[in-house]
Amino acid sequence: MAGLINLKDEKSRVAFYSVIAAILLTTFKIVVGVLTNSLGILSEALHSGLDLVAAVITLFAVKAADKPADKSHNYGHGKVENLSALAETLLLFITCFWIIYEAVHRLITGNTDIEVTLWSFLVVIVSIAIDFSRSRSLAKVAKKHNSQALEADALHFSTDIWSSSVVLIGLIFASFGFYFADPIAALFVALIVIYVSYKLGKKAIDALLDRSPEESVEKIEAVLQSAKGITRYHDLRVRTMGAETLVEMNIHVTPGITIEAAHKISHDVEHEIMNAIERCEVHIHIEPEDSVG
Question: Considering the entire predicted model, what is its pTM?
Answer without folding.
Answer: 0.63
